[in-house]
Amino acid sequence: MTAVHGTAIDIPAADGVADAYLAHPADGNPHPAVLFYQDAYGLRPHLRAMADRLAAAGYTVLVPNVFYRHGRTPVVELPDFIDTGADPTIWQRLGPILDSLTPEQSRRDADAYLGWLAASPLAADGPVAVTGYCMGARLVLRTAATHPDRVAAAAGFHGGMLATEDADSPHLDAGNITAELYFGHADADRALPEEQVHRLEEALTAAGVRHTCEVYEGARHGYTQADTPAYDRDADERHWAALLSLLKRAF
Fold first, then answer.
1. Are 34 and 62 in contact (CB under 8 A)?
2. Which of 39, 82, 111, 181 has its CA 20 to 30 A from that of 138?
3. Is 85 helix (H, G, I), strand (E, B) or coil?
4. Res 184 pLDDT > 80
């Protein structure tokens, strides 16, 4: 297993300074870069562990706090095991923060994150990949669409609200995407009902985007997050296999 170095960093961003976690092989050499978008619970030990695992596979991984406008990590104090069923106040505190992140803000932030990676000696020259979870899958779609010259591969897992009927739904920009995409949908996900699954597939196909969309049967929304009740070990390992396969094709 490749030794990994992880550190906290700050990124000058659109509306302030975004704190972030950077993980990379400990050899100090440049490696292909992966921009890793959080779920709604934010940058925390589990996401750092996921970034470390990805870095151990040979990548430089940047995990920004996309809620930096509301403060540094932890933006909301969370227990080690996050169970919103047992404590509904968690979502009551997180919901307004999540809802406040606009598409325009996320696009400007992506400029900053990708710019930081382009300047980093730890990131190899050339294209990058993007991966994201839950709300992060929406940011993946937006980043791939607004930076087609930079993003070679993009993946989203148990994403929500990817293809709504809103005028700013992320699937509407599919025509700008040149990356290869992979989506691993949760089964019977209220955040991504069947009509949105079909709408996303149709938009990507119509735009000629190379893509794979799969529904992980029996897996709940949040199936990769081991610090929540939704975690599903089999679905999580399937996600890792799909993500690493995508990255190997991209780099």
1. yes
2. 82
3. coil
4. yes
Query: In the numeric block, which tokens belong to residue 10?
Result: 């700050």
Nearest to 36 by CA among 7, 6, 62, 10: 62
Amino acid identity for residue 112 in this structure:
A
Residue 212 β-bridge partners: 182
Q: How many residues does the chain have?
A: 251
Biggest CA-to-CA distance, the chain: 47
d(CA 82, CA 4): 26
At 99, is the secondary structure helix, strand, or coil?
helix
% pLDDT > 70, the chain: 100
pLDDT tens for residues 52-63? 999 999 999 999
**Residue 155 near residue 131 (C-beta atoms within 8 A):** yes
pTM, 2 dp: 0.98
Q: Is the pLDDT of residue 14 over 90?
A: no
Within 10 A of 195 (CB to CB), how many other CB atoms are there?
A: 11
**Lateral strand order in the sheet of 33-37:** 4-13, 16-25, 60-64, 33-37, 128-133, 151-157, 180-186, 211-216
Of the candidates 54, 10, 17, 38, the one whose C-alpha atom is nearest the C-alpha of residue 243 is: 54
Number of CB atoms found within 10 A of residue 102's CB: 10
C-alpha span between 56 and 31 (Å, rounded): 11
Tell me the average pLDDT across 117-123.
98
Instruction: Give tens-digit pLDDT for 86-98.
Output: 999 999 999 999 9
What does each C-alpha distance from 242 to 66, 194, 226, 234 come to in angstroms?
25, 22, 18, 12
